[in-house]
Amino acid sequence: MDVQVLTYLFVGASFALYIGIAIWSRAGSTKEFYVAGGGVPPMANGMATAADWMSAASFISMAGLLAYLGYDGSVYLMGWTGGYLLLAMLLAPYLRKFGKFTVPDFVGDRYYSNVARTVAVICVIFVSFTYVAGQMRGVGIVFSRFLEVDINMGVIIGMAIVFVYSVMGGMKGITYTQVAQYCVLIVAYLVPAIFLSIMMTGHILPQTGLGATAVVDGADSGQFILDRLDGLLTELGFGEYTEGKKATIDVFFITAALMCGTAGLPHVIVRFFTVPKVRDARISAGYALFFIALLYTTAPAIGVFARTNIIESVNEVAYKDAPAWFHNWEATGLIAWVDKNGDGKIQMRGGAPFVGKPIFAGGTLEGGEVKGQWGERTVTNALTDNASEVYVDRDILVLANPEIGNLPGWVIALMAAGGVAAALSTAAGLLLVIASAISHDLVKKTINPNISEKAELNVARLAQAVAILVAGYFGINPPGFVAQVVAFAFGLAAASFFPVIIMGIFYKRMNREGAIAGMVVGLVFTFSYIVYTKFINPDPSIWWFGISPEGIGSLGMILNFVVAFAVSRFTPPPPAEIQALVESIRIPRGAGEAIDH
Amino acid sequence: MSTHQSDTQQQQATAYWKENLRLIAGYLVVWFLASYGAGILFVDQLNEIRFFGFKLGFWFAQQGSIYTFLILIIMYARSMNKLDEKYDVHE
């Protein structure tokens, strides 16, 4: 069967499944809408958390990022997994015992202040929206590549699907669709990885294949695949794959910001409000990490296999003889080639071939584009003076893998369904967090406490619908800063929520004044540093202690802790009932289900 | 409830919390050593050691640390289940 037909079939079937689940799991109460009624089994919650957590970026971009960053990519691997231990030990069980619906709920109650609650709501909306716009864009990209529809059309289809199951089912609908989406995305990720691993190393498990010898003839036979890649890259003037280029302090701070950011992200935390018991909250963090680790330990292997594969199938090959995938992706503008030395062959060398992303002469594909001497698309970018001739967008690595590895058509169709599942699941989770922050924390707890449950549920559905429209708008018209800001959502979460929640649980004396001061200082400092070093004066030599904007959230977090502690020493301790509340959340007994209030 | 009973409960709760904090501290040390230690601070030294086809530091940074996190969570969840029973604070 044709790849295109298979793709429609796979993606269509997965959509039917999600909608079916949505109809089966309609939410009837606010409790079901916000926390799925507090009755999700820990293993299902683990899967849902994993799907929620792993975005289009994890699915599509991470292996590509690793392939180009080598050792430096480790910050993402450790940073995006290490936070789950913090969640399991420092946050999830206590927040589950606290038993409310949202993160601002905890901040507002623990710090007996609607100011603190409102600051938290603003943080939630800010962090979640920067994140969700990227997801909608991801849906559009996957659709446009695999279903051959326009990116904007892809975004609209994605919005419609999310709309149906999240507005109808709330958290309950989202949770059970996420379980299905996890299954789709992990199968889609592992199948090509296993094929590649067998092809390149003879190992079924990519995780052990990464440490095995490469299956090649000739002088390289019997060499470990990592050593071989190191050798290839060094020869071509790139750095060694297994050695880092970033400063150690920067790697340290980025990893910390990603870990603590993970533990502070509202859409992750809220997942632990949905399990029945405190002990379930602990182990469901374990399940979540297990399901995430399946993908995260496979990604570095894909990165190495794909990087090796690309160099071998393209470097020093005449352009006209280049494999079909090279020309296909060139047509989409994600690969570009400039024949600097005029030999008609593709040279892969260290450094960028030209400045920035490719800008093709003659505009669009249809609109009379200019072809070069060998039939390649001509770019108008300023060329660099190195010998490097090829631009390969990192994002295509995973999506192009089946083609690069010559895998059967159904694998390509499966990848499409997996990419869509990854993007949809994360978008839905984020949108729910935004909607509940508005309907529950802003409308119910701050503006109109007398609102009936039915009215609150309607407000929640309305907020969800509006959030989807706004996210869709950003997906279609992505503001230039969005893509760059997504990574910073972690730094902001690490510098705002993480310390406030930790101190709320582990330091009974922490009071309203300290928490608000800490949150504001952490957020403002981190935000200003990012804006200044990334957009106003993007010069690495002015970085404090050599810490990049990606890692500054860790410093913001330390500031938050210090300021909160100092301010709390000079202001009155929290009232007795708050201190009693802190003692009660430390003990599992008496959690019951998430309570309405 | 008599004051005496409530006092005992209070002591139980405090003892439970102290033991929990000790567990957390222990697990955080291992968490730190596996990721920030082996994967970042001492990566160059460990890279001198080979582990199958990996340099050991690189393996910790891209594989080993994740396995360690997973094992730690499972161990912590199990120890806490026992601790909950021991101090009779389970649900």
Automatic annotation (TrEMBL), chain A:
Membrane topology of the entry: Multi-pass membrane protein
Keywords from the UniProt entry: Cell membrane, Ion transport, Membrane, Sodium, Sodium transport, Symport, Transmembrane, Transmembrane helix, Transport
CDD domains named in the record: SLC5sbd_u4
Gene Ontology annotations of biological process type: carboxylic acid transport; sodium ion transport
Molecular function as annotated in GO: symporter activity
Cellular compartments annotated: Membrane
Top-level taxon of the source organism: Bacteria
Record field: transmembrane: 6-24, 77-95, 115-134, 146-167, 179-200, 251-273, 285-306, 410-438, 459-476, 482-507, 514-532, 552-571
Main location group: membrane
Any single Gene Ontology cellular-component annotation: plasma membrane
InterPro entries, A to Z: Na/Glc_symporter_sf (IPR038377), Na/solute_symporter (IPR001734), Na/solute_symporter_CS (IPR018212), Na/solute_symporter_VC_2705 (IPR019899), Sodium:Solute_Symporter (IPR050277)
PANTHER family with a match to the protein in the record: NA(+):SOLUTE SYMPORTER (SSF FAMILY), SODIUM/PROLINE SYMPORTER-RELATED
Protein family membership: Belongs to the sodium:solute symporter (SSF) (TC 2.A.21) family.
Protein name: Cation acetate symporter
Native species: Terasakiispira papahanaumokuakeensis
UniProtKB/TrEMBL annotation, chain B:
Family annotation (Pfam families): DUF4212 (PF13937)
Sodium symporter small subunit domain ranges (all copies): 14-90
UniProt-listed InterPro entries: Na_symporter_ssu (IPR019886)
Membrane-spanning segments: 21-43, 58-77
Keyword flag RNA-binding: no
Keywords: Membrane, Transmembrane, Transmembrane helix
Keyword Translocase: no
NCBIfam families: Na_symport_sm (TIGR03647)
Protein name: Sodium symporter small subunit domain-containing protein
Organism: Terasakiispira papahanaumokuakeensis
